[in-house]
């Protein structure tokens, strides 16, 4: 018998299991929020970093399995977490496991869309952080602290390498559950490593169910500026009460 509805959350590049605390605190207690954590950060800091999406997905799936046997759940991912959530949903579907009720993704265009026009994972630290700053790729409190930058550099390099080396393989049959996409208005545009509207709208091809889109004020980390609104929407979707009408 299913327990509380669940949110399985997947952080952005450099993120850990505490990355969504600001959003999670606005989620009702009747929803179980579980943020997964990749090796090499947070409580798994001593483990070796992963720099391939498929290896990351295998690790995350092994963490998910105890939580999704017969429960109602959604997958939430931001940025890198969006890509990981998409590939996790593919693997769950392929393995005929209990599928999510929906996917809720923020901060990234469709999986076939590449936002970066140059490889950042090969850059030395100063140049790398300049590039990350341009795209709003880390919260400002981290970018303004040298000690944190030194700590995060190898983590971010491995995460960016995973994104840059990712090969998109379209599904023969799209998902049969809805996908909900939120992005910051400042992320949308042409050139300068922006996400085009077509790059965002291409998510529609990944599901035969509804695919919704919404833009909120802000840059790549708009989710923290709108933490309460994001939490409300996630909660509605997790409880099956979200309507597009």
From TrEMBL:
Thioesterase domain ranges (all copies): 6-236
Example of a GO biological process term: lipid biosynthetic process
Listed Pfam families: Thioesterase
Entry-linked Gene3D superfamilies: alpha/beta hydrolase
Family, similarity comment: Belongs to the thioesterase family.
Protein name per Swiss-Prot or TrEMBL: Surfactin synthase thioesterase subunit
